[in-house]
Every structure is written in structure tokens, then in C-alpha cells.
Design goal:
four-stranded antiparallel beta sheet, six-stranded antiparallel beta sheet, 199 residues
């Protein structure tokens, strides 16, 4: 008579158990992180800080037929923090003023904080060195002076961060790009509307 022997089932490889435990821990960590982030959003309703040009004035425009441009200008850039429960930090703020693609001035500032539901003002008063314009730039300036409105391009960025407590923070870039138009007769800004805020 033939005898049949049943084989004892082999145990699960310990390595598989370790991998399963690690995966379970990671899954739990992701779920907990999601719950924490959602709770913070519900409690704090975070809003992205933004920057805007609140004031601009062309104090002086020097230009001669040889194509040398010299500008004196006053600008007020404001960092707005609409978060009622979170302080915002601003760093790496750099702004560039251009005429017809030619750099006129580069504006920078040291890192600073903006209190909860508040704003911080950056006042710039600068005078550029004489800047030689190319033929296209000279033609653009001729047209601008004839129209009585001198256009400049203003652009730049700032790294913003809002933080809750000590350990949690969110970072992103605020980028700004707009046209600044000034009346040649008195230097006043025309229809000033320049902000990094989404519309």
C-alpha cells in the first residue's frame, strides 16, 4: 500500500513581514499627515501672501539726443499678509525696472517678517546712472515723449513663507510683472495696477 505524507506548510519569509510592516507604517504616516494638514487648513484658512506696487512716481527723467537715459524714481512696494493666525516671512526679494528691455535699476531688500493680518512697506527712492539706449530704445523714447506717457516694465519675485507654530511652514514664490506708465509732464503714475495676487 502506498503511503502519502502531507508536507508541512513553510512559514512566511521574515523579510516579507518586515516589508509589510514598513509599508503599513508609511501608510499610517501619510494618513496622519493628511489629517494634520487638513486640520490646519480648516483652522487657519491660509492665504498666500502677495506683493504689490502701492505708489510710483517719476521724479526726474533725464534724456539727451545721444541716447543717454537717467531716471530718478520713488516706488513703494507693499507685502500683504491676509492670514489672521499666521506670520509671513519674506526673503530674496528682487525687483527690476526696465525701459524697452534695458535694465534701469535693480532693487533688493533684506529678509523681513509681516505680522498676522498686516502689511509691510518697502520704500525705494533711487537714481540710476546714465544708461545708453540702443536705436530701438531711442525710437521708443521718442515715441513716448511725443505721446507724453513714458512706459517702464517692472518685474521681480520674493520668496514668501507663512508659518504656524515652530514646526509647520509653507513656502512659495510670489512673482510680479507689470507695466508702469508715467505722465512726462508731472511724473504721476497712470492707472497703477501692479500685484502678484491672482485675479
Amino acid at each position: 500500500m502506498t503511503k502519502l505524507y502531507a508536507k508541512r506548510p513553510k512559514g512566511t519569509n521574515p523579510l516579507i513581514w518586515i516589508v509589510a510592516i514598513v509599508c503599513a507604517i508609511l501608510a499610517i504616516a501619510v494618513i496622519i499627515t493628511g489629517i494634520v494638514v487638513f486640520a490646519i487648513y480648516v483652522i487657519y484658512h491660509p492665504k498666500m501672501p502677495y506683493i504689490k506696487v502701492a505708489y510710483a512716481h517719476l521724479d526726474q527723467l533725464g534724456y539727451d539726443p545721444s541716447g543717454l537715459l537717467e531716471v530718478q524714481m520713488a516706488l513703494k512696494v507693499v507685502a500683504e499678509n491676509d492670514n489672521k493666525k499666521a506670520v509671513a516671512s519674506v526673503s530674496d526679494a528682487t525687483f527690476v525696472l526696465r525701459f524697452h528691455g534695458i535694465d534701469v535699476a535693480v532693487l533688493q531688500t533684506d529678509p523681513f517678517d509681516v505680522a498676522k493680518n498686516s502689511s509691510a512697506e518697502l520704500d525705494y527712492l533711487f537714481r540710476s546712472s546714465p544708461i545708453p539706449l540702443d536705436k530701438e530704445g531711442m525710437e521708443a523714447m521718442r515715441v513716448a515723449l511725443n505721446r507724453g506717457v513714458v512706459p517702464f516694465d517692472f518685474g521681480g519675485h520674493a520668496r514668501t513663507r507663512w508659518r504656524v507654530g515652530i514646526f509647520f511652514s509653507v513656502r512659495f514664490w510670489a512673482r510680479i510683472s507689470c507695466h508702469l506708465n508715467f505722465l512726462y509732464s508731472n511724473g504721476s503714475a497712470v492707472d497703477l495696477d501692479c500685484s502678484s495676487k491672482s485675479r
